Structure formats: structure tokens, C-alpha cells
Amino acid sequence: MIGVFDYTVWLTYLSLISAILGIIVSLQQSGHPYIGVFFLLICGLCDAFDGKVARTKKNRTDFEKSYGIQIDSLSDIVAFGVLPACIGNAMIRVSPTISEIPTIHKENGLGFPNEIFLYIIMILYMLAALIRLAYFNATEEERQKTEDEVRKYYTGLPVTSAALIFPTVLLFQYLIPEDITLVYYGVMLLTAFLFVSRFKVKKPGLRGILIMVGIGLVEFILLGISLCRK
């Protein structure tokens, strides 16, 4: 078979599987954004460690390294580009009010004009994520021709930050009694802009990764509590 199947890519494959499940759940008529965001958090957890796991294999060939970069970005566009948009789509159809999870449906959505605007934001977000990942791949390929060190800075907001941004937005439902769908889409539009901006972001070390994983676990627990409340 073609491809690479050793342990260096297992987390990447798992992230993609989680993303696909999240998309399926979010697009179901009975789907709910809080369920889809669970899978987004799992994607973020896998992505936090896939690179470090891959680098533990000392005898990786140039093909395996290149394959790892490509498969990681292809997985990321699904997990952090498409899945957050699908979660947003679920929010158009299903009320995210915590006390009523997961059975309350919006009878007429948000209205035709509003929904068209929100779908445009979805498209712009996914396009920005794609551009950000393609830019990273191209610049990383050029960088590796002259440098052997691990990248220290990113240009623009990494798309993987979606794994913390959107669950945080949904947690605001604890504080805001009104429907937060428009807030979610406002954050989506801002995030899309940050994806393609030219500011520098320092690549987190192990300590930073562990802090972000800890934040993600807290969000996972809080969202779990919200789903269990009837």
C-alpha cells in the first residue's frame, strides 16, 4: 500500500477521524454544536503532540518527513478549517442554550438574509485556513533548505488555535443567556483575518503546549457538564 503507517502519523490520522466524526455529527439534523466541539478538542489534543511524536523516530527518511508535513496540513484543513464551519452551521439550526441541550431547534433558522451572510463568513474562514496552511507549507519547505533547526516563529495565527478559540466561545453560553450564534460567527471572521495576517507568533515549547492542553481539558470537562445537564 502507498503511504506511511508507522506510529509517527497515528495521531494525525486520529485527528482526521475525529474531525470527520465531528463534521458528521454537526451536519445531522439532530446534531448539536456542543457535540461537534468535543471532536474539535480531540483534534487539538492530537495535533499538540503529533510533531513531537514524529520527531522521536531518528531514522526518518526525507520522504517520511515530507509526507508527515503534507498529511498534517491536509488533516488540519479538515479539523480546524471545515469542522469549525460545520459547528457554526449547526448553530444556525440548533439553539446552543445550555439548559436545553440537545433538543431545541430553531424553527426558521436566523432568517434568509442573515444566513446568507453567515455562509459567506464560513467560506471566507475555510479559504483563509487553506491559504494559511499552504503558505506555511511553502515557507517551511524553503526554510528547511537552509536551516536544520525547528521553526521558532509562525507568521499569522496557526489554524490549530481553532481548537481552543471556538470551544471558548461556546463556553460563553454559561454567562450569556441569549443565543451566541452571531458571536460565534464574529469570532470566526476575526480568526480568519488573523490566519492571513503578517504578525509573528512564537512557537510554544513543551510548557506552552501543556498549558494549552490543560485549557483544552478544562473546556472538555465544562462542555461535558453542560451536555449532561437536562
What features would you highlight for this structure?
230 residues; 7 helices; two-stranded antiparallel ribbon; single chain; mainly alpha
How would you characterize the overall build of this protein?
- Helix 3 runs antiparallel to helix 4, helix 5 (162-171) packs antiparallel against helix 6 (181-195) and helix 5 packs parallel to helix 7.
- The protein contains 7 helices and 2 strands; from the N terminus they run H-H-H-H-E-H-H-E-H.
- It is 67% helix and 3% strand.
- With 230 residues, it is an all-alpha fold.
What is the overall silhouette?
Answer: globular
Q: Quote the average pLDDT.
A: 83
* E-strand count: 2
Number of helical regions: 7
Overall helicity = 55-70%
Order of helices and strands: HHHHEHHEH
- Spatial sequence of strands, sheet with the most strands: 1-2
- Would you tell me the structural class of the helices and strands? mainly alpha
Please write out the topology.
Blueprint: H1 10-27, H2 33-54, H3 62-93, H4 112-144, E1 153-155, H5 162-171, H6 181-195, E2 200-202, H7 206-228
Antiparallel strand pairs: 1-2
Helix pairs in contact: 1-2, 1-3, 2-3, 2-5, 2-7, 3-4, 3-6, 4-6, 5-6, 5-7
Question: How would you summarize this macromolecular structure in one to three sentences?
Answer:
With 230 residues, this protein is mainly α.
